[in-house]
């Protein structure tokens, strides 16, 4: 599995990591590097590797979730890939959930796509954690709708305090597949 992680990191570095430009983050802060993870999560090889690695991370939590989900659009492709791979491999985490930024204006008018019963155990997914704000929005919606959060996983932790904040606020383990320091081009930034 280490070979899959190494290849996934290489794809992220080549396709998603932008260095040398002054970029504005979702938080409004400015940074000299940016992870455009959609360039990896919309790449067939990257998405296949990511699904396997996320399932490996899910298995490290003490409680097994029956669902994974996160805030649109950072979590969408990850959630779909992991749910599909879980089904293919007989893993229990075969349900995907997507938290909308605002409720649907028609039909079910729900905040969560593919709603499940209250008490459903979920791992919250995000592509990048900086301060944890986007991940927290998903967590808050899951809690409001009665889900039990058993863990949080991000593809990349920018090492800006978000992981620690999420762990403190949601009393669960927060894991990341990679950290900023795993990428030599930005490790010292």
List descriptors.
single chain, globular, Rossmann fold, alpha/beta, 6-stranded mixed β-sheet, 189 residues, two-stranded antiparallel ribbon, 27% strand
How would you classify the helix and strand content by structural class? alpha/beta
Tally of distinct domains? 1
Strand content: 25-35%
Q: What is the CA-atom radius of gyration, in angstroms?
A: 16 Å
Question: Number of helical segments?
Answer: 6
Inertia-based shape: globular
Q: Compute the number of strand runs.
A: 8
Question: What is the top-level CATH class?
Answer: Alpha Beta
**Any idea what the CATH architecture is?**
3-Layer(aba) Sandwich
Low-confidence stretches: none
Mean pLDDT: 95
Give the helix proportion (percent range). Answer: 25-40%
CATH topology, by name, is: Rossmann fold
* Main beta sheet: 6 strands, mixed
Arrangement of strands in the largest sheet: 5-4-3-6-7-8
Distance from N terminus to C terminus (CA atoms, Å) equals 29 Å
Q: What is the H-and-E element order?
A: HEEHHEHEEEHEHE
């Amino acid at each position: 599995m280490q070979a899959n992680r190494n290849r996934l990191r290489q794809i992220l570095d080549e396709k998603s990591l932008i260095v040398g430009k002054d970029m504005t983050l979702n938080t409004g802060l400015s940074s000299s590097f940016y992870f455009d993870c959609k360039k990896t999560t919309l790449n067939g090889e990257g998405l296949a590797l990511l699904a396997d690695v996320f399932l490996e991370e899910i298995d490290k939590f003490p409680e097994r979730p029956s669902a994974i989900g996160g805030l649109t659009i950072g979590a969408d492709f990850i959630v779909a890939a992991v749910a599909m791979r879980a089904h293919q491999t007989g893993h229990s985490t075969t349900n995907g959930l997507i938290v909308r930024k605002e409720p649907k204006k028609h039909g079910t008018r729900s905040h969560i796509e593919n709603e499940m019963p209250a008490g459903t155990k979920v791992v919250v997914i995000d592509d990048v954690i900086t301060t944890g704000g986007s991940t927290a929005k998903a967590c808050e919606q899951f809690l409001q709708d009665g889900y039990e959060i058993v863990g949080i996983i991000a593809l990349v932790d920018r090492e800006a305090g978000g992981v620690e904040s999420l762990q403190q606020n949601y009393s669960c383990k927060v894991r990341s597949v990679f950290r900023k320091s795993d990428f030599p081009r930005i490790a010292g930034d």
